[in-house]
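Quick one: structure tokens for this chain, please?
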Amino acid sequence: PELPEHPDYPRILAAFNESTGPLRAKDVCQALDHALLPKNIEGTRAKLKRLVKLGILTEADTGCFARQQ
């Protein structure tokens, strides 16, 4: 599927490619070098949920996201 138009999406996928397990929105924020502020974490969580809807990621557990196998 096509990635949405935003520079963070390829960087989010790169974080998952380097990871060995599921990531939380906070972990992805750290990987993107965003300040760990609630607004940044919530924005990242929304992007992760969008990638789940596109079938690129799965939500393994509540708040834990992983690459679709």
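The longest strand covers residues 57-61.
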